[in-house]
């Protein structure tokens, strides 16, 4: 008897063409697999995150969602949520204007805009200034930031985009810090309000190409700094990605495009 198969979608999120943005795996399920097996699938996919979604009983436009890096389950992920919504809207006949995902971080709404962009509504995670920098941070970055703040992740602020682009961190030392990841940011240029990079070797992602969850912290920081609630952002990893951002009190909107790279099935031996 053949093993059951799992539908699988590989989506480049925060991108308008393949080979840009942040690749995510999406596995639509009818019921949860064992956690250990979902972790094995994510490790085999070897993408920054693989998302698993399960429809909520009695709620046609609502799903439960979980995200796994190659090494751990994570509490919030933007690009794989964007990718999951893209799969529902583009491939699985989802006809509503908005989908609600229930997660470890509460309900996450994703709406489809007229121009094809998808907008994530996420919790805001404002960072708090640190009076004492974490031990080893400067050595880990091989650079000295202007400011250091913290939420779930460390936020390190530099004067210029060029400084952020030039960072060559020591990933082993970054992983030793007591945070999920380190967000490096600076003012942007060419119509972009701010730029960023995100390093998370502690959870198996040395540098994440485009990080929606990091913008839960970046948006409130830059909204206060620049005195505006609508912002344009760019993550300047080698793949890169563009994000349209809005502060909404204790929530943030994060918008971007997504494209499907591959569609297939996983034969995971379930």
From TrEMBL:
Highest taxon, organism lineage: Bacteria
Molecular function, one GO term: isomerase activity
InterPro entries the UniProt entry points to: Phenazine_PhzF-like
Coiled-coil ranges per UniProt: none
Keywords: Isomerase
GO cellular component: cytoplasm
Active site: 49
Xref: PANTHER family: PHENAZINE BIOSYNTHESIS PROTEIN, PHENAZINE BIOSYNTHESIS-LIKE DOMAIN-CONTAINING PROTEIN
Family listed: Belongs to the PhzF family.
Protein name, entry field: Isomerase
Species, as recorded: Hymenobacter lapidarius
Taxonomic lineage from the root: Bacteria, Pseudomonadati, Bacteroidota, Cytophagia, Cytophagales
